[in-house]
C-alpha cells in the first residue's frame, strides 16, 4: 500500500508529461482532457456506488474507482500546474501560490456556503495536485526557468522519501483513522 501511493503519483505525473513532451499535446488541450477523465470517473463512481466518500471505500470496486480518481488527479494536477506556470506565464512559484490560495476555497465553501463534506474534500484533493506539482517544479527547474535548480532527481527523491516516511508513520500509528 505504501509504495502504491508513490507509484500512482509517479504514473499519474508521467501520464501528463508523456502526453505533453512525448506526444506534443499542449497543456491547453491536455488539462481539459484530464479534467474530463476525472469527471467521467466521478460520474461512473457515483452512478455505480451512490457515494464518493472516502470513508466508504470498503469494496474492491470502490477501491478501483478511488485509485482511478487518484491517477486522474495526478495527471490533471501536473498538466494544470504546468499550464498556469508556462502557458499562462505565471512561473512555477506563482502557480504554487495561486493553487495555495485556491485550496482554501473548498473549505470556505464548506463552512460558509454549505458545500457538502465529500464535495469539499474532493475539490481540495484535486487542488493539492497542481499545488504540489508547481512547487516541485519550481524547486527542480533551472534558474533560467525561474526555479531553484535543485534538479529533478534530487527533488523527486526528496519528496518520495518524505511521502514514504509520512505514509509509513500514519500506517504504523494509525493517527489518521477516525474512531
What string, H for helix and E for strand, traces the elements in order?
HHHHHHH
Secondary-structure-derived class? mainly alpha
The geometry reads as globular
Quaternary structure type: single chain
Average predicted local confidence, pLDDT? 91
**How big a fraction of the residues is strand?**
under 5%
Low-confidence stretches at least 5 residues in length (pLDDT < 50)? none
Helix content, binned percent: over 70%
Sheet with most strands: none
Q: Helix tally?
A: 7
Q: State the separation between the terminal residues, measured CA to CA.
A: 21 Å
Number of domains: 1
DSSP summary, beta strand count: 0
Radius of gyration: 17 Å
Q: Can you lay out the helices and strands and say which pair or pack?
A:
Blueprint: H1 2-22, H2 27-49, H3 60-87, H4 92-102, H5 104-113, H6 117-140, H7 152-173
Walk me through this protein's architecture.
The chain has 179 residues and is mostly helical. The protein has one domain (2-169). Helices cover 78% and strands 0% of the residues. It is built from 7 helices and no strands. The chain has helices spanning 2-22, 27-49, 60-87, 92-102, 104-113, 117-140, 152-173.
Amino acid at each position: 500500500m505504501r509504495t502504491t501511493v508513490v507509484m500512482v503519483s509517479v504514473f499519474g505525473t508521467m501520464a501528463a508529461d508523456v502526453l505533453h513532451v512525448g506526444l506534443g499535446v499542449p497543456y491547453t488541450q491536455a488539462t481539459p482532457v484530464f479534467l474530463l477523465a476525472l469527471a467521467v470517473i466521478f460520474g461512473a463512481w457515483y452512478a455505480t456506488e451512490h457515494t464518493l466518500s472516502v470513508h466508504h471505500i470498503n469494496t474492491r470496486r470502490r477501491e478501483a474507482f478511488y485509485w482511478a480518481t487518484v491517477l486522474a488527479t495526478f495527471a490533471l494536477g501536473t498538466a494544470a500546474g504546468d499550464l498556469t506556470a508556462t502557458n499562462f506565464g505565471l512561473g512555477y512559484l506563482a502557480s504554487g501560490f495561486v493553487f495555495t490560495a485556491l485550496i482554501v476555497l473548498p473549505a470556505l465553501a464548506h463552512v460558509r456556503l454549505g458545500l457538502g463534506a465529500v464535495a469539499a474534500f474532493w475539490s481540495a484533493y484535486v487542488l493539492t495536485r497542481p499545488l504540489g506539482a508547481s512547487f516541485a517544479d519550481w524547486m527542480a527547474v533551472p534558474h533560467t526557468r525561474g526555479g531553484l535548480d535543485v534538479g529533478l532527481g534530487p527533488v523527486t527523491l526528496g519528496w518520495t522519501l518524505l511521502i514514504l516516511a509520512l505514509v509509513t508513520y500514519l500506517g504504523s500509528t494509525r493517527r489518521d483513522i477516525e474512531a
